[in-house]
Amino acid sequence: MYTLNVDLEIHTNEKEVTEKEVTLHLLPGEQLLCEASTVLKYVQEDSCQRGVYGRLVCTDFKIAFLGDNESALENDEMQFKNKVVGENDITLHCIDQIYGVFDEKKKTLFGQLKKYPEKLIIHCKDLRVFHFCLRYTKEEEVKRIVSGIIHHTQAPKLLKRLFLFSYATAAQNSTATDPKNHTVMFDTLKDWCWELERTKGNLKFKAVGVNEGYRICERLPAYFVVPTPLPEENVQRFQGHGIPIWCWSCHNGSALLKMSALPKEQDDGILQIQKSFLDGIYKTIHRPPYEAVKTEDLSSNFLSLQEIQAAYSKFKQLFLIDNSTEFWDTDIKWFSLLESSSWLDIIRRCLKKAIEITECLEAQNMNVLLLEENASDLCCLVSSLVQVMMDPYCRTRIGFQSLVQKEWVMGGHCFLDRCNHLRQSEKEEVPVFLLFLDCIWQLVQQHPPAFEFTETYLTVLSDSLYIPIFSTFFFNSPHQKDTNMGRESQDTQSKPLNLLTVWDWSVQFEPKAQTLLKNPLYVGKPKLDKGQRKGMRFKHQRQLSLPLTQSKSSPKRGFFREETDHLIKNLLGKRISKLINSSDELQDNFREFYDSWHSKPTDYHGLLLPHIEGPEIKVWAQRYLRWIPEAQILGGGRVATMSKLLEMMEEVQSLQEKIDERHHRQEALQADVPCLLRNSARLSSLFPFALLQRHSTKPVLPTSGWKALGDEEDLAKREDEFVDLGDM
């Protein structure tokens, strides 16, 4: 830790320690709990420690710092502002760890304190790091604010005590949805029927409402899709377990399914009943030679949740940097630390698994059944990745949001537990959804024109996990949400609460800021007239570049029983190590499929596969590095490239308009260029979260390690003996 100096250079004069009153903006239902005055918030600037005085407040929604220069920041037109959470606001759910500094030593704070720190350090789940000096604050206020922050961020909570419900109650008459938001919510039978029709899955599958009112299973949504031959009474048999639930249908008729395991039983009689049940279920989806099914057991042959959590715990420490000195100390061993975390390797394994399943669906024309204990973690992850790779609709913004609703929200992913919103069990906390977003970012940065949304969209979506005014990421299941929002209540007098969804981006961002969520380089699929459409086959053009892998021959006698036994053993928890296909055969099919696809030109409206070789899997810089000044490249990075591309697009569009007065041809070229992107020289590589020297944060390098940059006389002339990367 660096030393606290009394003679700090402060943005405000010491005579002005009695701060100007800065208004605390409260949301509907938000209440002030405690506050402290004359708190010094540190700002990293060059090699110095600087700070600004202000008030530190804690509400039942957030911790906020109200600085004396707040009004000046609000007038900054270049700022990418969130209307709900300000730059110096931390929602209580976003706080990861709290540390105190006692006699220059950093210690984790928890429970009741006997001694209070002179400095408070807060690490956030969005990887921000806040430093607050309490040395000039009154002792009573220090006790009040520190105790309040610890209690309200660490104490276990009841679901009904979340700010989510306070906000919903207070904003009951003022909440409104964005009329332009056409995200499919999948909370009605009509939504599922629409999705079946869109994917041509309605020929083999049917939407059912057997779970209306959650009378069969609280884990499943009220409506879902199953194979047409499956009797609805089978769904009730084991409360939805052991049932193949439809995820998506491929253009060639193959389908992606998922299934949760049956409860583990010791009684031989019950085991026999379960085996017979699964035998019958399997006959409905495996009917060779017309339909074959490949089972993919994600619980035993893939990642574990413990691996994901352990890897991310190591990975995030690389970005929770307390000061510039720590940044440069860790920079020396950056690559070894990155590799030892295994986070990028986990991303690679997820993408590889999705490609393997894509190969089965696309090239081998096989159904794929994903197996998992509750089918609500890795099933959500893998099935979503497969759909993004295979279905161009899922690469549009509305399509992607609908996918998250279908596979994650309605699929029963336990957001409440996996994000540990109630602070009840750290063992349940696993960043599965963040891992999914990181995998999607890999695809976005490798194939930018294929996606209607940007990496900024993915970044703010990851931030929205911790904003408790949206219901999207704060429940474990649709049943839990409907029950607690009053929709399942028998009381006809009480009106059910109506919460916003995270997909209403107008709640968080002004229209100008929302333009940064839309990719101006994305070109929608051109609409064909009837004459053009008549001569085209249903299969997309990418099919022509796929390897000519023959479909598997009809199974020999005994294969069906062997396959059924494999499925049953997996679902009953009796794992077997041998896969259906040999690992060599799987690897050969995968490599042929993968290499063949990448050897052809990319069709951005067809199948899309990522590169998964070592250097192709990268760190999501915008999300993980955006708060570290030293990691910025002023006027450089992908943002500068994007800005130049947009300038060229505007020139091309202008010339095209002069050549062709008929504007219908311009639709493919027209792009709304975000005004914030027009001057690339004033932007940081981590734009829009790190802007031009708003705090004069210049990336610098110690001269001791860069003697080769010039002779000693030249280096001596540089301020503070640092080399400014911005001038290089």
UniProtKB/TrEMBL annotation:
Key words, A-Z: Cytoplasm, Sarcoplasmic reticulum
Protease listed as a keyword: no
Record-linked Gene3D superfamilies: Pleckstrin-homology domain (PH domain)/Phosphotyrosine-binding domain (PTB) (2.30.29.30)
Key word Cytoplasm present: yes
Family matches, as InterPro entries: MTMR12-like_C (IPR022587), MTMR12_PTP (IPR030576), Myotubularin (IPR030564), Myotubularin-like_Pase_dom (IPR010569), PH-like_dom_sf (IPR011993), Prot-tyrosine_phosphatase-like (IPR029021)
CDD domains for this protein: PTP-MTMR12
Domain spans labelled Myotubularin phosphatase: 186-624
Similarity annotation: Belongs to the protein-tyrosine phosphatase family. Non-receptor class myotubularin subfamily.
Entry protein name: Myotubularin-related protein 12
